Amino acid sequence: MVGFGWGCWRQGLVMARTHHYPSDLTDAEWAQIEPELPAPSKDGRHEAHPRREIVNAILYVARNSCSWRALPSDFPPWETVYGFFRRWRKDGTAVRINADLRRKVRLFEGRDPEPSAGVVDSQSVKGAPTVGRDSRGYDAGKKVNGRKRFVAVDTLGLLLAVLVRPASVQDRDGGRPLLVDLYFDCPSTRYVFADGGFAGGFVDWAGTVLRTTVDIVRKPAGQRGFSPLPKRWVVERTLAWVTSWRRLARDYERRPDSSESFVYWAMIGIMARRLARHHEADDDRFCKGDRELPGAKTINI
Fold it and tell me: What pLDDT digit, counting tens, does each position of 97-123 carry?
């Protein structure tokens, strides 16, 4: 079926889309995200397009890696979608939604809402021509010309913080501002696992300045070939989740903070789907007669 087209948006008509994309949120997934969005502003004119369509459009760009101007015509105008993306990037909305959904996932997994340990790593990605000279560099070790993502995740692989720098930045140099962000955003996280690229003065600095223990996980002596290392494999899996979203397979953003925002939106989509599946599983268990559900009181029938 075909959508109703861009002309309807231009005429101010708000109509439901008849064509749906794989990146669109289900009702259960939208129910996880909607309460976390900021309330619409009461100043000026009312928003002409549903918030759900705005979020669907952002996730479409992140999942399929199209340019903003190439958004399908049955989404709101690309200027409107990008305007919300930019606004939510500036006010930290994506960061807050990620944090709130992460707490919910951790509770469903039987963990404390705030993590006490994390894992940090970096990922060098090629930069598109849209990446300016002032924010790109060359990673001689990975032979990559572009940018480097520094990420911190909890032991479930859920995103805690992300920082984008030129690919020429060394791990120990990019890791410092990342741990500072982690210190303020997740003050309970005081034990961090990292690879050998973060060894040296970075470990002493983290312990002295931030009171954070950095445990360097090294390859066993004589190891040949690939073998997942304890704790470190968690962050590698998260990076694989993120790069499966095509917008993040390379770095296309003119601004590093836009690149960071897309990482948060990718994780928001991943966690919303996971939470929706948790709720669907709970509903199935309830219908089959299970009496005790996570976070619920025992029901006597």
Answer: 999 999 999 999 999 999 999 999 999
Which tens digit of pLDDT belongs to each residue from 26-40?
A: 999 999 999 999 988
Q: How far apart are CA 231 and CA 199, in angstroms?
A: 16
Per the document, the length of the chain is: 301
Is the separation of the CB atoms in 278 and 152 below 8 Å? Answer: no
Determine contact, residues 125/149, Cβ cutoff 8 Å: yes
